[in-house]
Amino acid sequence: MIDPRKYLSGDDLAAYEEYIELRARAWREGWHHWHRIAQARDRVQPVEVGHAIPYTRPGDPDGGMSICHPSGWCVAELMAGGIHPPIDAILGQRLLLIAKNYEHAVVDYVDAEEWRRLNGPIKHEVVVDNRRAHTETAGPMTYEQAIEWIVLKDVPSAVWSRKHNRPQMAIVPRGAIPKDRNNRNAWRLADFELEQAA
Amino acid sequence: MANLAKYLAVNEGQAKAWARVNQSSGIVLEADFYVSSATDVAAGNYSVELSSAFSGSDEYTATVSGVEVNSNTTVVIANYDDATSTASSIYVWTITNTSGAADATYSSFGAFGDLA
């Protein structure tokens, strides 16, 4: 456990002080993002998610393919609205990342994956500003918008934020994912019927 | 007031996120809380993306279990990979005594700690 104040200064430090006070109040008074999800269980039922998102990390061409499977609960919560923050509030969450050699930086969530890749194993990671996740909520979404929200949050930004020479991601029907996993680690994106190329 | 005191007393002991994952034919989230998606990374390796982050990568821990349903002899070791996990992604390995890193039939996790 580290004290992030040792690594923060100026606006980042001021934002952190405000954030931890707001987070404590949100938790004490029951309007933390976690409470909103817990309270929604009484009025939301999970949807059946018909799609999966296979992707390849651009900086790791030999690393094989990952497949993101959205949670039916999360999709339902997003479709209901008023529970999760807007996606830009998540992507703008501020993180203090400290590498094993103690190189450190404060970056947005959307840029954190790239910083981790460039700076090697991370020794400490601390959220230093997440205020908007507690104070803002997104309105009701369609199924497609909910899937897009999850893609932007859970698929590394290097996959979807830049143009690549070949598709790095697709949104495919769940049925396109093979059930036989004997050769799982040899799966490649080109093996799938692409419904929507990134 | 007594209820509030009781509520505050168990805050740090509550599971903030949990899931049961069917690994038998891909990664299927059968039940979950505070989870936005699960990512099939490789055979015997998946990550769970939380709805929002813990307050830091050092501010939580996860307990993980795995089971191989159709075998009386296969032992499954399920492991939370804290070297790869971040404040908002929990990486899980399932390893069997017969195949090394391999998918279990089911695995489950619960994560405890301080949320962002």
Task: Please provide a written account of the structure.
The complex is a heterodimer of chains A (198) and B (116). By secondary structure, chain A is an alpha+beta fold. Helix content of chain A is 37%, strand content 17%. Chain A contains 8 helices and 6 strands; from the N terminus they run ααββααββαβαααβ. In chain A, α3 crosses α7. Chain A is flat and about 50 Å long. Chain B has 1 helix and 9 strands; from the N terminus they run αβββββββββ. In chain B, strands 3, 4, 6, 7 and 8 form a 5-stranded antiparallel beta sheet that branches. Chain B has a 4-stranded antiparallel beta sheet with strand order 2-1-9-5, with no helix packed on it. Chain B starts with a helix and ends with a strand. At the A-B interface, α1, α2, β2, α3 and α5 of A face β2 and β3 of B. β2 of chain A pairs antiparallel with β3 of chain B.
Average predicted local confidence, pLDDT of chain B: 87
Overall pLDDT score of chain A: 92
| Rg on CA atoms of chain B, Å | 15 Å
Largest sheet of chain A: 3 strands, antiparallel
Structural class of chain B: mainly beta
Proportion of beta-strand residues of chain B = over 45%
Record field, number of beta strands of chain B = 9
Distance between termini of chain B?
26 Å
| Unreliable runs of chain B | none
Give, in order, the helices and strands of chain B: HEEEEEEEEE
Biggest β-sheet of chain B, characterized? 5 strands, antiparallel
What is the number of strand segments of chain A?
6
Oligomer status: heterodimer
Radius of gyration of chain A: 19 Å
- Tally of contiguous helical segments of chain B: 1
